[in-house]
Amino acid sequence: MPTPSFPPDTLDPEGTPLWIAELANDDPNHALHVVRGLEPAEVLDALGVKPHLVRPCELPAEKPDEWTSLPGAALGVKPGTAAALVAGRVGEWTFVYDDSGHTVSDEETVALSVGGRAAATSVFTINADTSLVYAVDGEEVANINGDNLDLAEDLPGLPPELRTAFEVAGTVELDYLEPGEPDYDILMRAICALAGLTFTPDELRRLPLLGAILG
Description:
alpha+beta; 8-stranded antiparallel sheet; 8 helices; globular
């Protein structure tokens, strides 16, 4: 696998997309949903957010402390009390960042894809367990556990769109890994590559964003 083919200033030294690192607290347990063909408000509704709870979201300049995510700070959520969601759209793809993984289930991703759409969800837990689910038109197409990911064996069997995303995601050489071994953030990079979310934190701030509290 090559090194990541992301634009300059979009990844941190560990290979985490910088815009996600900026949104997350210092010990993340979070998820990213992407859906092709739905508006942000529609995706939030599908994830269980009541329409009256959705509002425009302007991200603050910084987090107030290490335990608060940037969406949590923007929406006034105390850490551990509820999920703070932020949603936006880039081209055909809508993304929803969930700062606590509250909206995660395999069934949710499949449901988001119903109607000829593609959808994917990537999860990173507080224990550094990672996963990625990809669904098309109401059918789960791939379900990847980061602990069991073998790039040489698994990539050839992935759908072309997802395989290309992994090729863009590449691998990051870190001291604790063997050469070419997937790092903890490869699934987040892959879902970002899939949906074209390869922007800088400043570019994220220039997007029209919606926020909501859930839970």
